[in-house]
Each structure stands twice: as structure tokens, then as C-alpha cells.
Specification:
Blueprint lengths: L4 E6 L4 H9 L11 E7 L7 H4 L2 H10 L3 E2 L3 H6 L3 E4 L7 H8 L6 E4 L6 H13 L4 E4 L8 H5 L7 E10 L12 H12 L3 E9 L2 E8 L3 E9 L8 E6 L3 E5 L5 H13 L6 H19 L5 E2 L4
Helix pairs in contact: 5-6, 6-10, 8-10
Length: about 300
């Protein structure tokens, strides 16, 4: 391997490809300086407007950053040490990942892991069976104030958490998977796994999903729709000795650091079981909506 770890970026149809590449060009940072995006494959999804209408522009921007544009995912993977599967359309992830698995390169799959729970579960199963080290996460998991709060020994036990976040639909995706996953990922970062049942309340200005965790703890996610109200990310965490309230930013520094560390150590910062529980939570929320707000179990299967 060369002095820098070489990353293949598969799917040049979102701002993540240029943002991640720019961060990794920060030579004065010991983590970012370890790796570089050296090759990319454009991809693109013709029936997903945010892919179809942006892939050409982002591909051109990646060329400007001296990233080689490959003819195929296989071409890109064969010339790199690690892979970021960054296609903005989660429906593409399973098929493209299958083409990349034979290369046995560590892989970060950008959010969402897949467009629905069943496909996410299948993709995780196949990646594990192929022996490919991988993880998937929203950038919100690694934003301050979450790491500081979770490492605070004086806060006492976390008894509950309320998160609000931007909510947009992605064509062909289950209704929370494409953008709701950001706030839900933050909720699970605080609460951890162990959600047992979910109830959803739907209204014109947004939805609220109430999750009941083991130990009698309650966590909620409020989805904020762009066209109805001010939006952003934030949370309230109810601890035994304090209540913490804070906005949550949405930059990529923390996530890219974790991706590089993962490529170094092959130890994922998020377990596949927790990622699948997040998808099971979103699936249960959709079933609760369809049942008029009934309480439904979170079933990972």
C-alpha cells in the first residue's frame, strides 16, 4: 500500500463526494492526511432527480480535484485500498455492493444503507457472508454535543431523549429511510439499541414517532417538513442528574474521521445490529402510520 490509503468513491451524485474529498486534502490533520480519494465512479440514478440532475456536475468537480474517473465500479475498486459507496439513491446500494464484494475491500456505505428494511437486512447479510468489513451511518452520530454528552461521567443514567430533525422523502424509499434517518440515528446514538415498540402520530406539519426502550425509557423523533416550518437538528436528553438541550450541527468532519479510522483498524464504530435496528425502528414507524397510530413491535427478524 502507498503512503496514503487510497479511497474509491462510488457514486458521484451528492455533495458528499466533494466534501469528503476536500476534508481528506487537509495535510495538516493527522487523520485526514492518512487517506485520499483517488478514484471515483459517477453512477447515477435516472429516476431519482437529486442523482440524475447532479451527477454530471459533481463528476466534473471531482475531476477538478484530480480524482481519476473510472469506467466501472470494478475499475475503481481494483485500484484502491478502501471503498465509500456514496450513491445518493439507496436503492442502488445492494446491486453495486454485490459487484464490489469480491474485491474484499473495507467499505463505508453512506446513508441510507438501503431504501427499505428488507433490503438493508439482505445487504448486511451478504456483506457479512462475504467477509467484507463495513459500516453505515449518518454524520449526525458523530456531531457534538453527542460524544461529549455520552462521555460525561456526571450526567447519570440516560432516561430518555427527544430529537427533532429535517424530514424529506426520497423516491422509492420507505418514508423515513432517506432523510428521517439522520435524526433517528442521533436518537439511537443517545439511547442505544433496545427499542421494543413504536407508535407514530401523523399530522400536516410533521410526524412524531415514540419509541419505548428497555428499562422503561422513552425516546421520540419529530420530523420537520421543509415546506411547513423552520428546520434543523436538535435534541433534549433527560439524564438522572441533568437535562441537556442542544442544537446538533450537520457537518462531515466527525464522520470522515471515523471512516478513516475504520479503514485503518477495520473496527466499525457502529455495529451492523444497531444499524439494522434503526431500520427496524423506521419500518415499525411506517407500519404504525398505516395502522392509524397503533403501537407496533420493533422486529429485527
Amino acid at each position: 500500500m502507498s503512503s496514503k490509503l487510497s479511497i474509491a468513491f462510488i457514486g458521484l451524485d451528492s455533495s458528499h463526494c466533494t466534501a469528503f474529498t476536500d476534508l481528506l486534502q487537509a495535510e495538516n490533520d493527522p487523520i485526514f492526511a492518512y487517506a485520499a480519494v483517488t478514484v471515483g465512479w459517477p453512477g447515477g440514478s435516472p429516476d431519482f432527480p437529486m442523482s440524475r440532475d447532479r451527477v454530471e456536475g459533481f463528476t466534473s468537480e471531482m475531476r477538478d480535484r484530480r480524482v481519476r474517473i473510472a469506467e466501472s465500479p470494478e475499475d475503481a475498486a481494483s485500484s484502491a485500498d478502501a471503498i465509500i459507496l456514496g450513491c445518493v439513491d439507496g436503492r442502488q446500494h445492494l446491486e453495486i455492493a454485490r459487484r464490489l464484494m469480491p474485491f474484499q475491500k473495507p467499505m463505508f456505505v453512506d446513508k441510507p444503507l438501503a431504501h427499505d428494511f428488507a433490503t438493508a437486512r439482505q445487504l448486511a447479510k451478504e456483506l457479512d457472508a462475504a467477509g467484507v468489513p463495513w459500516f453505515s451511518s449518518s454524520a449526525l452520530r458523530f456531531q457534538e454535543p453527542l460524544p461529549t454528552l455520552l462521555s460525561d461521567p456526571d450526567r447519570g443514567a440516560i432516561l430518555g431523549c427527544d430529537v427533532h430533525g429535517i424530514w424529506r422523502h426520497g423516491p422509492g424509499h420507505s418514508d423515513l429511510a432517506w432523510y428521517g434517518i439522520h435524526g433517528i440515528e442521533a436518537l439511537f446514538t443517545v439511547m442505544g439499541p433496545g427499542c421494543q415498540r413504536v407508535q407514530r402520530v401523523s399530522a400536516e406539519n410533521g410526524d412524531v414517532v415514540i419509541g419505548q426502550w428497555t428499562g422503561g425509557r422513552i425516546g421520540t423523533w419529530r420530523g420537520l417538513k421543509f415546506d411547513h416550518q423552520a428546520t434543523g437538528y436538535g435534541l433534549t436528553v433527560f439524564c438522572r442528574h441533568a437535562i441537556h438541550q442542544s442544537p446538533v450541527p450537520a457537518d462531515y468532519d466527525g464522520l470522515v474521521r471515523e471512516i478513516v479510522r475504520f479503514f485503518q483498524t477495520l473496527k466499525p464504530p457502529v455495529s451492523s445490529s444497531e444499524t439494522l435496528e434503526i431500520f427496524a425502528f423506521m419500518d415499525a414507524a411506517e407500519r404504525s402510520r398505516d395502522l392509524g397510530g397503533q403501537v407496533v413491535p420493533v422486529e429485527i427478524g
